[in-house]
UniProtKB/TrEMBL annotation:
It comes from the Archaea. InterPro entries: CarboxyPept-like_regulatory. This is Carboxypeptidase regulatory-like domain-containing protein. Pfam families: CarboxypepD_reg (PF13620).
Length: 408
């Protein structure tokens, strides 16, 4: 395979160039390198020479066909000129220097539509007009594009299996700790200390408040006093017997009769509540709101004091003891043993175009730790050709793969 490639390289013109196709599997880009130009004799193209009879030509279109990338001449390119919307067709073939010449015999001004085709090149087209007797020079640039290169899969991922193992255990770790223990006397009894504990019992303060006192006052008052009189009236008759005779005797009674009103002035006593302000001693077991809010109105509150209770207690005496303790740890988990990486494959597809029928040499490379295998490095013989590309990684990473294609 290497020998064939060297022989193919030796047949190429030094001015010829390559276009390589770069195809990345993950971030796949394609770089196309153009193959070498074939000689005009090997193109097997029908050459049509334009012969001009007579000494007079109305106009001449001449120029050269060059490669747009290298600037070199393209030999053997067919230049077809349609004159006056296709009323006349003139063809010419470029020479080894890429030069062509087209003569228009009819007098007058003409429009032209020139189309250029060459093996392995994209077609090019130039339009314009030419006047009678004018000689116009054209430089027509064409793009060498003999085949397309692509992958059936431009992106892929790989994974590999693993075997999981579990483990568990327990261990004790010593450490120095401290604790509080009671102090004992020689008989083993706890030793107590007398402690006077000061406990906040509440708060006292003097607060200016509004009070009310009862006042007594007298006022002369005129009152109506009813007046009564006593009168005698006949209330009935009674029979009085005197001897053999009986005769009626009137019975009189007395009664009190309302005789109108008389006025009298008396002194009457009344009460009323009179407000006044004074300082009053107040207390609270909790912190009053004016201390919590931090606003103490001096005109309303004064002499704020804390009230404490003193409690005498016997508290056991203690001391700090240092000792060694142990922490118990239970541990466990899993560890994994990974299996070898699997392989992934894709298809390299080469499609001939622009009349190219030669062979194609392939190569693949990666910037990372990735093993690449091409099924075939030389393709030839049909319009569309395929081969396989197998990739096997050695570690987990993102890989960019370059596939290069060269003409023969």
């Amino acid at each position: 395979m290497i020998k064939e490639k060297r022989e193919a390289d030796s047949l190429r013109d030094p001015k010829r160039r390559r276009i390589c196709f770069l195809v990345a599997l993950v971030c796949l880009t394609i770089i196309l390198a153009s193959p070498a130009l074939a000689s005009a004799e090997s193109l097997r193209r029908r050459e049509i020479q334009c012969t001009v009879e007579g000494a007079y030509k109305s106009a001449i279109i001449e120029g050269e066909v060059v490669d747009i990338d290298t600037g070199g001449p393209v030999a053997g390119a067919v230049v077809s000129a349609g004159i006056d919307s296709g009323l006349k067709l003139i063809e010419a073939v470029t020479d080894a220097n890429g030069h062509f010449l087209i003569g228009i015999e009819n007098t007058g001004d003409h429009d032209y539509d020139i189309q250029v085709s060459a093996v392995g090149y994209d077609p090019a087209r130039v339009t314009g007009s030419i006047r009678s007797g004018e000689q116009k020079h054209l430089t027509i640039k064409v793009k060498y594009n003999p085949f397309d290169l692509r992958l059936s899969d431009s992106y892929g991922t790989l994974s590999r299996g693993y075997t999981a193992y579990s483990y568990s255990g327990r261990r004790s770790v010593p450490f120095t700790a401290q604790r509080i223990v009671p102090v004992l006397d020689r008989l083993g009894n706890p030793v107590y200390d007398t402690v006077v504990e000061k406990v906040l019992a509440g708060y006292t303060w003097e607060e200016r408040v509004t009070l009310y006192r009862t006042e007594y006052y007298t006022m002369p008052t005129t009152i109506l006093v009813p007046r009564y009189r006593t009168e005698t009236y006949l209330s009935g008759w009674k029979m009085v017997k005197l001897g053999w005779f009986s005769f009626p005797v009137p019975v009189f009674s007395t009664r009190t009769v309302f005789d109108g009103y008389t006025t009298r002035i008396v002194l009457q006593t009344f009460t009323r509540q009179v407000p006044y302000e004074d300082w009053v001693l107040k207390s609270s077991p909790t912190k009053p709101d004016f201390l919590i809010l931090g606003s103490l109105p001096s005109d309303r509150i004064r002499n704020v004091k804390e009230v404490y209770d003193f409690i005498i207690k016997k508290v056991p005496r203690t001391q700090v003891e240092t000792y060694t303790a142990y922490r118990i740890y239970d541990y466990g988990g899993e560890y994994y043993s990974y299996l070898p990486w699997s392989s992934i494959g894709t298809t390299v597809i080469v499609t001939m175009k622009n009349g190219y029928s030669g062979g194609v040499f392939l190569s693949a490379a990666s910037g990372g730790d990735l093993e690449l295998r091409l099924g075939s490095t030389v393709l030839r013989g049909s319009t569309t050709m395929t081969t396989t590309l197998t990739m096997t990684p050695r570690q987990a990473a993102t890989y960019s793969i370059a596939v290069k294609a060269f003409d023969s």
